[in-house]
Design goal:
Length: about 140
């Protein structure tokens, strides 16, 4: 089950399509979606989560809480829409593609991919790009 929750004015207009895409992303990594909750929020909301649970006092675009068990993928993915918009402008990419990148990034973390080292970050970025293409191919 993939659900979307909103702590900001932003809303995904095609939730069913996005949910189907997230399922396909997970299945393409030979895993199975159990329960994924995306919580879209603003910078201040995510900053408070970052401070409270991770003891970090910085803005970020995403925080992922992993409750997965083996190949059964489960977690909460908090996304700052403010950061996504700013990053899309900074990197001169379409907002939707940046949103997809961040959404895929969270799921890839739940599957087990990291991004702490240069090599891990390169693998993560390549996977994100591949998953974004999956969204556009199926439209």
């Amino acid at each position: 089950m993939i659900e979307f929750h909103y702590e900001t004015d932003f809303k995904i207009t095609r939730e069913t399509y996005y949910a189907d895409w997230v399922s396909r992303v997970i299945e393409s990594e030979l895993s199975f979606p159990s329960r994924i909750d995306y919580i879209f929020c603003d910078d201040e909301y995510l900053l408070s989560i970052n401070q409270k649970y991770l003891d970090h006092d910085t803005y970020t675009d995403i925080i992922t809480f992993d409750y997965s068990s083996g190949k059964q993928i489960e977690g909460d993915i908090f996304i700052s829409v403010d950061r996504v918009k700013e990053n899309a402008e900074r990197y001169e990419v379409d907002f939707e593609d940046e949103l997809l990148r961040v959404m895929a990034h969270g799921v890839l973390h739940l599957i087990g991919y990291g991004d702490k080292t240069k090599d891990e970050a390169e693998v993560m970025r390549a996977k994100e790009e591949k998953k974004i293409k999956m969204f556009h191919v199926e439209q």
